[in-house]
Amino acid sequence: xxxxxxxxxxxxxxxxxxxxxxxxxxxxxxxxxxxxxxxxxxxxxxxxxxxxxxxxxxxxxxxxxxxxxxxxxxxxxxxxxxxxxxxxxxxxxxxxxxxxxxxxxxxxxxxxxxxxxxxxxxxxxxxxxxxxxxxxxxxxxxxxxxxxxxxxxxxxxxxxxxxxxxxxxxxxxxxxxxxxxxxxxxxxxxxxxxxxxxxxxxxxxxxxxxxxxxxxxxxxxxxxxxxxxxxxxxxxxxxxxxxxxxxxxxxxxxxxxxxxxxxxxxxxxxxxxxxxxxxxxxxxxxxxxxxxxxxxxxxxxxxxxxxxxxxxxxxxxxxxxxxxxxxxxxxxxxxxxxxxxxxxxxxxxxxxxxxxxxxxxxxxxxxxxxxxxxxxxxxxxxxxxxxxxxxxxxxxxxxxxxxxxxxxxxxxxxxxxxxxxxxxxxxxxxxxxx
Length: 434
Description:
The chain is an alpha/beta fold. It contains 18 helices and 14 strands. It is elongated and about 75 Å long.
């Protein structure tokens, strides 16, 4: 199949690269000429394990091209994927569909034969029907179908998620469109990965419902963690005890400083807005959003309490600022609430993150960036473990404690137990829910 991928952001680039690895001919389109040149040269602009290797392999094989020419990409394509950004709209929290509709209009003008126009971006229910209207108005003679194909990629594991998905969701309205999408995903059919075909509205809703549920699960265990701290229970034991119930499951039951990233904050806000507009309030989701913000602020209080109520004039070393490990993504990361709060209260903050500096320097002014956790801890008054990168999972705690002016550890990811921290020489320890 020939595929055009409009947008080379996180979703578009990963999807385009992986489709080419399925054996399809893929042309990825971006208006940024410098980005197109870098991709053509084999340089990936994001940190995503395994992506660069797969991309370079398929560029070398001639199956993957990058261009700024949308007309050339769309010409003769069996499917044209829209994978542009849908950020939260300022003011009301709804998804901003400006880029989606602009892409649809450009695609309409470039269509020369039948194609399935597939929305890969996360969009509110009803958007694909509006995409159809945009294309029809711009090119009344166009022969096309629309389809909804939401992504379920975890940053840091996106390539594996695409190649070995829990499921693929495809919303279509014609057998012809279903046939095209079936051919595109045939490599997954052959390996018995579930491909769920449904109507357009259900496919659109599945994406929002899935992310809202996972966000609720994270927020639930974080609220339980706060209660565990008051009652002397250990949230890790509680999470394991409930997670072994097959109806609940272990995933997303890790207490921490709240969720962030490109999906959960944006999609929960959009779902809440959709509910309000349709007079069906998403009360659970609205509460999840509120509680998640409170959890981030609670982490600041935890660090202040660890330091005797004040960080003014004190040195705090922070390990990890990306919203999760194995990504350079800083969008809505808990660090964007926690670190500025520490700086604002007079702390001298040192930051170590394996991949976060490129984005983080602009987002976290007033901090000192360092490359080594041991150097960051030298003479510090407190150490905060904020993102559980593998590099921070096996630290020599005794060495760090011995180098600190005041050996205090706030482990906001529960990587270390209170017992091992105290045995290593930390005189004060704060975990989450322990």
